[in-house]
Design goal:
It contains 8 helices and 15 strands. It is an alpha+beta fold.
């Protein structure tokens, strides 16, 4: 595992011009003794990340370039994530090296997804209202786990949370591919047989209700029908997307229900 200085030197080589880096130059820019820099470069050479064929102008190997690019991407993501969370630039830059070095790949994947959402919210900050496709075109390909709430179409006992909100596993998944995507809901395991059975779920779009695709316990519908509103600003900014849905289902006693509700997703 690299220490911070090894990583900084590796990244200096990635950012250097065609002449590469020198021990003297790195010593000045990093504020380290020449012998320390020279020792680290030798360690990087042993790991086949640095080529010292020209001892005065060592360069990255192909393996070294790939490794440097991987860590550079991790650092940039960590910096942006910390800045969005309100950390000042100086501390964000310093701490990002530790995140890049010591975060596991699953943790970095989560940070990547969250940072991507922050970036998209920033890009859409000037748009008060917009459609689902505008959001999809700004998200990178991937699966995003997002909170959602299903509301009743009216209040009951002062509450408008729909009972069907508990029919589904939380959070939902927003699948994005090449500028479009779909919302995927998973039915709560076992409820289909023990308590209720979903017959259909339809979403409202351009004046009509359309049937969703149901695959076993998975229900999905396209992102296009969702209408988003931009609420709040900066750290408190939330993208609130909603679409009207109609559900038909049976309970365990064979009684039939037809529910009109509002599906909302929060980013």
């Amino acid at each position: 595992m690299y220490n911070i200085l090894k990583l900084k030197i590796l990244l200096c080589f990635l950012q250097a011009d065609s002449d590469g880096c020198t021990v003297t130059g790195l010593s000045k820019s990093l504020g380290e003794e020449k012998y320390t820099v020279s020792r680290v470069i030798s360690e990087l050479e042993k790991e086949m990340l640095i080529d010292k064929s020209d001892c005065r102008h060592p360069i990255l190997t192909d393996k070294g370039k790939k490794e440097a690019e991987r860590y550079s991407e991790r650092i940039n993501i960590a910096i942006r994530y910390l800045l969005y969370k309100g950390v000042d630039m100086e501390n964000a830059k310093n701490d990002a090296f530790y995140w890049a070095l010591y975060c596991s790949e699953p943790t970095m994947a989560v940070i990547r997804a969250v940072e991507q959402r922050y970036q998209v919210k920033h890009e859409l900050s000037e748009s008060k209202c917009f459609g689902g496709l505008m959001l999809a075109k700004r998200l990178k390909n991937g699966a995003y786990k997002l909170p959602f709430i299903i509301y009743r179409d009216n209040f009951k006992n002062g509450i408008n949370l729909s009972s069907v909100n508990n029919f589904f596993v939380h959070p939902c998944v927003l699948n994005i591919k090449n500028g479009t995507g779909n919302v995927q809901l998973c039915l709560v395991s076992g409820t289909g047989n023990a308590y209720w059975r979903l017959k259909s779920l339809k979403y409202y779009y351009q004046g009509k209700y359309y049937a969703t695709e149901i695959y076993g316990d998975v229900v999905q519908f396209p992102i296009e029908p969702l209408k988003f509103e931009n609420l709040g600003s900066e750290i408190c900014q939330v993208l609130h997307g909603s679409v009207c849905i109609r559900l038909e289902y049976y309970n365990n006693e064979g009684n039939y229900f037809n529910a009109l509700a509002m599906f909302t997703i929060l980013i």
